[in-house]
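Bench notes, afternoon.
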Amino acid sequence: MILQIILFLLTVCVIARGIFQLLGDKETYDASDGMAQTTGNRDVQADAMDISITAAGKLAVMADGIGKENTGKVCAGLAVKEFMDAFSFYKAIHNPEYFFERTMYSIHMNMQKVLEERHGGASVGVVLLKEGRLYYAMAGQIKIAMLRNGELIPLSEGQTISVLAQRAYKDGKISRQETIWSMEDEGIWNYVGKDGFHQMEVCEIPVELKKGDLVVMMTKGIFEEVSYAELEKTLVSPALTAQEKADRIIRRAEWSDTQDKENGSIMVLLTDGAIRG
């Protein structure tokens, strides 16, 4: 009799657990991140990106290749692969900034060997979501932003001539007029693979995540063709999955009437899985 009671209770527990899991599934939305690309008006797609989810967190990497013919494509692919390979060895990352810096410089050295005498490299952006926080690093010109409460908030500044001039002006190193002259120059002054590659941009304080936050990474072919207002309008839609949002933004970039469009890539990252229970 006691055995029958125990078996009955175990059966009830299993059924109850299954019901709770089903209810839990109904309360969550699509669990996939979104990734999409367009070649713009270019012959070669020189952007690369990937996502890895392990016990150490969620790592997303995006690279915008620089160089003629297939050089940029090779550099971007190398950057993403090396970041993913490095991340795969970790069960936990206690110092994300050190991980970013060590990996980025390793990629730079290997990229220089591949390039030899050719001109090339890649803008590289990386986001790590873990234990309720967002960490990022960037070299070159990848836009990283967060959608929170319907507003798209820029996180990364970018390493262009105009940004460099603004910093130099704030530090008193150049005049106001020199700053103004440089404000329209969006040329990249620092990227992985470039001779003299140096300090990357890293978030000084990790971002505390809130439920419903989305993180977005974009290359030039997106943020130069789609306004922040248009990005927000698509990203806030509760009826769309992250992949559908990425696809719509890509279509908007392709509809742009710009004659010389760059490769465009976008990642729409869900963050709820990284939030502490």
